[in-house]
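A reminder before we start the practical. When you read a complex entry, don't treat the lines as separate problems. The point of joint prediction is that each chain is placed relative to the others, so the output describes one connected object in space. Small molecules and nucleic acid strands, if listed, are placed in the same frame. In the example below there are two entries. Take a minute to note the order of the lines before looking further.
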Amino acid sequence: MADGLHLDDITIGKDDETLIAIDARVAPGQVLSIMGPSGVGKSTLLAFLTGTLPPAFDATGHVRLDGRDLTGLPPEKRNLGILFQDDLLFPHLSVAGNLGFGLRGGSRAGRHAQVAAALDEVGLAGFGPRDPATLSGGQRARIALMRMLLARPDALLLDEAFSRLDSARRQATRRMVFDTARARGLPVVMVTHDPADAEAAQGPVIRLGDADPLRSNPT
Amino acid sequence: MSPLLRALPALTLLAMLGPVAAGLWGALLPAFGHLPAAGFTGPSLVAWQNLLAWPGIRAATALSLGTGLLTTLASLLIVTLITAGWWGTRSFRALERLLSPLLSVPHAAAAFGLAFLIMPSGWLVRAVSPWLTGWERPPDILVVGDPWGLSMTAGLIAKETPFLLLMTLAALGQVNATRSMAVARSMGYGRVAAWLKAVFPAIYAQIRLPVYVVLAYSMSVVDVALILGPSTPATLSAQIVRWMSDPDLSMRLVASAGAILQLGLVVGALAAWRLGELAVAWWGCGWASGGGRGRSLDATRPVALGLAALSAFAILAGLLALTLWSFAGLWRFPDLWPDGLTLRSWMRHARGLNDALADTVLVALTATALAMVLTIGCLQSEFRSGRAMGRYGLWLLYLPLIVPQTAFLPGLQTLLLRVGADKGVMPVIAAHLVFVLPYVFLSLGDPWRAWDRRQATVGAALGATPTRVLLAIRLPMLLRPLLVAAAVGVSVSVGQYLPTLLIGGGRVATLTTEAVALASGGDRRAIGVFGLSQTLAALLPFALATLLPLVIWRNRRGLHG
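Here is the predicted structure of the whole assembly.
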């Protein structure tokens, strides 16, 4: 039942002060952009979605994905892919090791084939044995994306995922992520401070914390 | 989070503080005349009467206070002046590289080394004899073991200076010294004055507990006192150990009273130090806001460099003397070098060395492995619950390092004796754990917490359970700090003297207990062999901790910051 990602009446607060209040639905293939200056708790919202919110915060509301209620689930059971502004490739694993990390089950040969195909898809065929630290920023971003996709997530979360890339790379990577999401019918929540990101996403935009965090209405 | 992981912090506290509390309790009863096993039932003041009747009591009390306060003041002063005068310079980095490995040199080895330098037949006298002094025989002066405990204090200063320097360097990571210095110096403050007025207060707040450790430790140390300290009368802590090993069980009452006295002295000295801190802070605030540019203070820079270099030299040259003596053939006074080098001493002690090494390794590896598991468990539990250890947690970590060993180990031994658990290596391992745990925790805590927790989020998003995130991502990424923490644990255990001696009841002989036991005999070749072995046993793990990550992650540039 692919009816997208529902953020039902979510409020996140700390010390009796509400930081975020949001109620939204993201359809499959659609990108919801969350905009706002740094420090308004955009990443806190994503931490709530992934289930990694520190206990100092109080949160209410529900996250539902294709009819599944994720709210109480541990992070590893949520099936949400996430990309941060740093690629966060595991530095102790090879490129292939990173890609294989998220693969579920399958034979050895099958996993090998999937990793090789993924590398091929992003134009990095033969990079499997490489040390991720020897790759360029753009190459690393592509590996991080493929690593996330190979785990077959049901939705994507982007935490300033493009802000570290130079502008040429940024457009290409952005297009690749959005196209993939659309092709696979994945709902996307993107947190960003860059209006160009939101524009390229061609989806709804929510602005947080312009004046008062309480008045964060969807536009 | 599994119940086991949830229970680990409590278990760790118990392993660390349980023996301390039990040992203090076990000293308190006999100190007031209650030791049924030896036929004494209290309460009575007989132990205190006997303690006060001991002729050395005044000297021992004064020695404990004197060596403790002098060592702490001097090493803190050297460290403060050297960082104030030289931080950020090439000389400072050179000194830092020189002093860091010296931290793991065991106290006993450093003390023996210093003794080999400064005693009448030591290297320093040989270097100037007979051409300058005219001495054909060692002069008859009491240097090592002087009644004021000065050589003992010198040895402690040389050993505690690297410790406080490393603690200061760690504290510098939390303090923005570069900016404060830039601001102060742009206003015309001298380098040293700028540091003292703008940076030092923040640094001291961070190194306060390590300073307390130095004070408590140098007031009550036993192995260094047996090697460099006076013997008639001995220091209070050395005398406590002597009473503990007396076949007359009634002496245990006196030892217990001594243990409580030693604890009281340390608590009193800590309180006095705290008052001193407040006074200096009150005066210092006025001094700092008084606006004096204090450029003349920069005249201390060469002095500070000289003192720090001297403390490094004392240990390095001492180790060289130990090494040379262990290989020395005939080496007459006043020759600067031995006539020849030989393996004879090593061969003669091969068996004893082997046995001691086996016990040392067994105790050190087991205690370190336990400490690593408990520490990782605590840190993981902290990470999973998202609740950080507070200020009190840090105090609890430092507590076993601040309570003097001679205050609680005698009582612990008495308790173990009573329940018949005073045999074998397990109690020794448990006693070592009390000291290994805090150091392992302090070593691993910062790098563990500095790890980017988004890596865990990424791992979980890829479907990895917390256990898989720990085993497949976090531990491999933290290999280097994990190995360093293990090396710290091993070197702390290797250096322990009193826990092995008292809790092992003489049945567990490590390189350290064997080396210290040689102190009274004066066989320099044997001391050289055991002292050097002890040093190597403490240093080798650090070499491994440096080399292994380079080899294992040789193709992983991202892990070599």
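Discuss with your neighbour: Residues 498 and 526 of chain B are 21 Å apart (CA to CA). What might explain this?
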